[in-house]
Amino acid sequence: MSDNLASQFLLREDVTFLNHGSFGACPRPVFETYQAFQLELEREPVDFLGRRLTDTMREPRHVLAAEVGSGPEDLVGVINATTGLNIVAHSLPLQAGDEILTTDHEYSALEKTWAQVCRRTGAEVKVVKVPLPLEEESQFVDTILAGMTERTRVLFLSHITSPTALLFPLEAVIAEARRRNIWTVIDGAHTPGHIDLDLDALGADFYAGNCHKWMMAPKGSAFLHARPEVQGLLTPLVISHGWTEQSKQPGAKGAFGNSPFIDEIEVQGTRDPAAWLTIPSALAFRRENDWRSVARRCSELAEETLERVVERTGLAPLGSSAFRAPQMVAIPIPPCDAPAIHKTLFEKHRIEIPVFKWQDRHIARLSVQGYNVRGQMDSLIAALDELVGLSDQAASAATA
């Protein structure tokens, strides 16, 4: 992997950045496009926001839709995946006794979202435990199907999980949920730009994804996708000029000529749309730099680093390679004071990487992106060995 790629990013040179998964990192030329849009807005805000915004927002939507396998009328820009998923969670007509079926691998912010929805509606969250290590699709599918009952109204799943970096095989459970008239809501925060997407083929009712992570657009760029048949269920979190009283009538148009789904969610009052407008630039950057090849090398480096740590510790990965996110891996490490290790890695070793306890496991979640090189993985392994005794763990396991 060429060091030249690092020069195309704005990351600090004194920090080994191994945490692309949390907030992403925007390449320099994409960020410059972002700033150019902001400057254009400030030079004539009324023209930009008052006259041209609806038309300007359309190109990124069409370009992104082609990238993720969606019709452009079925996808709308939001500032992050959490916002998109909150729109769905607060719109669905749930009531007391209804169940939201989910797993024990979900993002904590969305766990809180569904908890609040349940407090308001009287519905209940039902959590199933996905067997680990995840080595066969049937382990996941059978667990989800066994959790479905006549009370299940929503199936909420991550596509790529945040704490465990697992890639869930969703197709079969989404199809079965459709057969049972269960709404499927998918958290795709880590997915766009990370794996190939075909949202129409996947068939989820609702899918939210971030563009600021693996697609490398600026922060504030994400989307909500909804099948045409369920778009009428949605109510925006913010009611503004895009809303009309006739929006739920068959064939209705939104206030600005798009579908009500787009106009009601896209128009949120005064805001800076520059991050969303930069999506075509981010996708162009990926093409110009042959990002498929870059991603392949990153995936190989992530897998190699995981294997090197596993060899030292004897701790098994959480799943086989078929069910691990390509560029983001959850590395099991020996029991430790995870917050203290995280702090020391940054303050002493200048390594930025999440370290945390998840259930009864301790994890260092490694992200590998185009600006990373193998020497940084060497530094991580050496630091972890110093702080948590990787080789000591393997020796203990051998004598146990």
UniProtKB/TrEMBL annotation:
Q: Which UniProt keywords apply?
A: Aminotransferase, Pyridoxal phosphate, Transferase
Known InterPro entries for this protein? Aminotrans_V_dom, PyrdxlP-dep_Trfase, PyrdxlP-dep_Trfase_major, PyrdxlP-dep_Trfase_small
GO terms for MF: transaminase activity
- Pfam families, per this entry? Aminotran_5 (PF00266)
Where in this chain does the record put each Aminotransferase class V domain?
A: 46-353
Q: What is this protein's record name?
A: Aminotransferase class V
Q: Organism, per UniProt? A: Devosia pacifica
